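Moderator note: this is an archived Q&A kept for reference. The question asked for a predicted structure of one protein chain; the sequence and the answer are reproduced below.
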Amino acid sequence: MSEIDDLEPNQPAEPTVTRRRIPIWPFILAGVMLLVGSFVFAAVAIPISMPYYAMSPGPVSDVSDFIQVEDRATTTEGELMFLTVSLEEVNVIEWVAAKLDSRVDLAPREVIRPAGVSQEELRIQNLNLMNRSKENAKFVALTYLGYEVTYNGSGALVNSIIEGSAADGELEVGDVIVAVAGEPVEFSTNAVDLIGGRSPGEELTLTIQRADPDDADVVDTLDITLTLGPYRFVDEDGNVLDDPDRGMVGVLLTDAPVEVLFPIDVEIDNQNIGGPSAGMMFTLEIIDSLTEEDLTHGRRIAGTGTIDAEGNVGPIGGMRQKTYGAIEAGAEYLLVPAGNYDEAVAAAGDDIVVVRIETIEDAMTFLRSLAAA
């Protein structure tokens, strides 16, 4: 007998109910999206710092916007441009974005900012490097053009003291030697020459300037008499250098602040940009400003590289990023230090002509070879 036949007469049959199964995948998808969203929110709102800096192409600037030269000789039709790199500490999201951008490199934090160095200390260090670069650029440019530059030294600065030497306990790091045996000292080389050639056991009077420990604005001048000991020095490799017949004070010296007097007023406003890598382009811009000939010949020329007082052009960091920046700025030529040449060529492809530079003379030779645009 069927189920319907078992019912009481005239009793209606119960309706059959079909239950719908609710799919589970929308809940799984929502959960995944919620998890990813929470991760992104946490990474942005509460940045998870990564031990890396992202190096990306920075602003490209016309060097003439940064330099004012007294009695400028010519108006340049083209441009000399210097290149920069943008450096940013990254969080997780920025780290991923940098990995996906071929123009960006990730550098370990300790390479850019060593352990124990704050961001502010790094900024000040880079500004100091820029200031040295500006002074070198002025010196190289003006001496290249035949001007005479005058240096006024303020003494020999004590950088370190050798333990057990005559200076140990008498001199202090930061002392400035301004006279040796009554003879004035302008530069560290003066002090070395005046101390050299003396014998162990000989007494020597040094006149020094020392900051007052209670008031940094007060500088005391002191005469300190030392008895020279025998020469004994251990170099960085652990080699012991002995000369028992040669007297030694026992200090390592460098120049105290030097006043440089330039015959022409050159003002360089680095606009809070740090680092030494604009040195070559600053030098070229000053030369161009004081030369009747337009060194650019109407061309757009980018470049990067440090400059030392002898006119040597040194390597820099972030060459790939600077190459991309030069290309994006529409430069026709890119002047780079010899040490960065291969890296720049690899990044440049066929988009810009890369020129290898070792000295400021190399750069000038290239500029003079250009035909007018």
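Archived answer notes: The chain has a mean pLDDT of 86.
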